[in-house]
Design a protein that fits this description.
heterodimer, A: about 475 residues, alpha/beta, FAD/NAD(P)-binding domain, 7-stranded antiparallel β-sheet, 12 helices, 23 strands, elongated, B: about 50 residues, alpha+beta, 3-stranded antiparallel β-sheet, about 50% helix, about 30% strand
């Protein structure tokens, strides 16, 4: 069932209360529903986009330039899945090196996650050499509110209440007793057995920081809430051309032939040998024909022999020509953090301040990856790559976007540098879990949504085990 | 005397147009290494084989 606002009805029948109706929150509720467990979802936003609701996401940013915090996420039913690009892929195995669990713990949920996202459960890779794989993403068109809206409306086990802001949690003796929520003029304390905070990569930290300020004794010791915040830099690394026929000829049936970007990622050996982070590069499926011509013109001018070799194939399907984009991992940095501003929103909750400095190591990785890949293409005659000269001056290099927010409530075993444990439960508090990319211990080159959903399914199992034990 | 200066200036301008202008105009920069060469064109540095 879906309600437009909170009212004075009794909500004690729900053993689980989930805050946030984005991919993480909805997935958890749906999985609990399959196990006959009732859940209440509290969503701060409206059923669809509204500027009034979006204003609550405004915040201050300091340090290096970063996308407007009210534009990079959506405060509405379905959360940020309302405008996501749909890029879906599990994170690489080596990205879990510092997590309190590994790739194999999440592997059982790949099939289910693919089904939720309406994508093929197919993430093949081809080893190009010791440093590079050709990789495969899937592209989802799922907007969670559209796909699951009717199901939730008709469900007798899920109640979704819109236009209701979580303010903070109240509790003592390592247990949360209530969540204080505000809807219009109504302020209500909601109690439950288990609470799940799934409000996104910035809100999770904000609401926990506000809880900490309201209940200083609730969290034992120092919890690094809001710290180790990470971005997922997306950059334009250069341009080039790749002759797919040449790769196919060398690797024969192993080459991944599919419609979509031509995508490559570094292997663990590259990261270890070069002391780099993970990164992937791709060429879009459709580039502007004018751009094709410019590239060929340049190649004919500076490399006439090679230019003549490929000039006839310019508009053929085997030659990919265009910009080279990259997705980079950013290492966790304690100084990149979310904190509370002096300014408060209309519910009296402080707005956020984000301090962010781009990672020099990410940009050095981009340079090293491009150079290595350019040399691979040249030596194997897969194509020719050109690197944007700005990448050699890392200070000047600008990320094209920061749409993926990670960290702030990172998972780990040590209370000094993590907020949640391997089951995503806040350290030392018995009944509150955090759900979403804020839990990421480290990032990777993959977009985070696939992993968020894997984590949400796994979390629902952990809650089910506790409820049935 | 004036003619000599004019000639010298003409040669300076001639040499400048011959050597420097094409570098700015076409933005060429070439760096040859043992096995490959790097050529800068516009804002891009191309990684090419010596026999390209």
């Amino acid at each position: 069932m879906i309600l437009d606002k909170l009212d004075d009805r009794n909500l004690e029948e729900f053993p689980v209360v989930i805050f946030g109706s984005g991919p993480a929150g909805i997935t958890t509720a749906l999985e609990l529903e399959k196990n006959n467990i009732k859940s209440l979802i509290i969503e701060a936003g409206e059923e669809s986009y509204s500027e009034n609701s979006q204003k609550f996401y405004e915040g201050q940013t300091h340090g290096d330039p970063i996308n407007d915090l009210s534009a990079s996420r959506l405060r509405q039913f379905g959360g940020t899945s309302g405008h996501w690009g749909g890029w879906a892929k599990p994170m690489a195995e080596y990205n879990f090196k510092n997590w309190p669990f590994n790739f194999d713990d999440l592997e059982p949920y790949i099939k289910k996650t693919s089904k939720i996202l309406n994508v093929k459960n197919q993430f093949r890779k081809l080893s190009l050499n010791e440093y590079f794989d050709q990789i495969e993403f899937q592209y989802s068109n799922v907007k969670f509110a559209n796909k699951f809206g009717n199901f939730i409306k008709n469900s007798d086990k899920i109640l979704l209440i819109l236009n209701t802001q979580l303010s903070h949690f109240i509790g003592k003796n390592k247990k949360i007793d209530y969540a204080e929520c505000i809807s219009g003029n109504l302020k209500k304390k909601i109690s439950s057995k288990y609470f799940v905070l799934a409000c996104g990569g910035i809100e999770n930290s904000r609401l926990l920081l506000w809880t900490k300020e309201k209940n200083p004794s609730l969290f034992s010791g120092y919890l690094p809430i809001g710290e180790y915040w990470m971005n997922h830099p997306w950059i334009l690394g250069g341009a080039g051309l790749i002759n797919k026929d040449k790769i196919k000829k060398k690797f024969q049936n192993n080459f991944l032939e599919y419609d979509g970007p031509l995508h490559f990622a570094v292997k663990k050996k590259f990261i270890d040998d070069k002391n780099n982070l993970s990164a992937a590069l791709y060429m879009s499926p459709n580039e502007d024909k004018k751009f094709y011509k410019e590239i060929i013109k340049d190649i004919l001018c500076i490399a006439p022999k090679y230019g003549k070799e490929i000039a006839g194939k310019v508009f053929g399907k085997s030659l990919k020509c265009g910009n080279i984009f990259m997705h980079l991992e950013e290492e966790p940095n304690i100084n990149n953090k979310i904190s509370l501003d002096q300014k408060k929103d209309k519910f009296g909750i402080p707005t956020v301040e984000l301090f962010y400095k781009k990672s020099k190591k990410s940009l050095r990785t981009a340079k090293d990856v491009l150079e290595e890949f350019a040399n691979l293409c040249r030596k194997e005659n897969f194509g020719r790559i050109a690197i944007d000269k700005k990448i050699f001056n890392l200070e000047e290099f600008i990320s094209m976007g920061a749409w993926h927010h990670m960290g702030g409530t990172r998972a780990g075993t040590n209370i000094k540098d993590s907020v949640v444990d391997k089951n995503l439960k806040i350290h030392d508090i018995d009944n509150i879990y955090v759900n979403g990319s804020s839990n990421f211990t480290t990032g990777g080159y993959s977009n985070p949504t696939f992993t968020i959903i894997q984590l949400a399914i796994r979390l629902s199992e952990k809650i089910k085990e506790r409820l049935y034990s | 005397m004036n003619i000599k200066i004019k000639r010298r200036n003409f040669f300076k301008k001639f040499l400048f147009s011959l050597l420097v202008i094409p570098i700015f105009k076409f933005n060429f920069f070439s760096s040859n290494t043992k096995n490959f060469k790097l050529i800068k064109k516009n804002n891009l540095i191309w990684y090419l084989n010596n026999n390209d």
